[in-house]
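User: My instructor asked us to take a sequence, write out its structure as C-alpha cells, and then describe one feature of it. I'm not sure where to start. Here is the sequence I was given:
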Amino acid sequence: MAANTQTITSAGRKKYEEELYAREHEIRDEINKRLQEAREFGDLSENAEYDAAREQQAENESRIAELVQILATAEVVETATMDERNLAAAVGTEVELEDAQGKRITFALVGTTETDSLLNRISNESPAGEALVGSHVGDEVSFVTPAGKVRKYRVVDIRITERHEA
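Assistant: Let's start with the prediction itself. The C-alpha cells for your sequence are:
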C-alpha cells in the first residue's frame, strides 16, 4: 500500500460514494436555495441566515473535498478473493476472540476512516487491529489498550464480513 493510500472495505467505498453524491447534489442544492432566500432579505452584512448558510456551504464543500480525497486514494479490500479455508484476519473480516475467563468479543477489521468503537469496528492500524491482522483461528494475540492495559485473547473464529463477486 502506498504511503498516501487508505485501506477501506467495499461497503465503506459505497457509503462514501453515496455520501459524496448526496453532498454534491441534494445538500449543495438545499444550501444554495437557502443562500438565495437569505440574499432576498437584503443587507448581507447583518444577515444571520445568510451567514449560517455560508458556514454550512463551507462545511459541505470541505467534506466533499475530503470524500473525493478518500475515494481517490482508497485501496479497496476485495473480499471475494479471500480463501475461507485458511482465512487470516484482515480488513474485511470479523474476528471473534476469547479471553482467559471465556468471555468472547467480536471485532470487525476496517480501514481507519471506517472505525466505530460503539459497533466494535476497529482500524487495522489500531493496537488491537495490528495484533489481529494476519492471525488465524487458534492463535494467541495480545495488545496494549490506549489505557495501557495488556489484553490477551485466543482467536476463536474469523469470518468474511462482506462477500462480493470478483
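For the description part of your assignment, you could build on this observation: The mean pLDDT is 88. Try explaining in your own words what that tells you about the chain.
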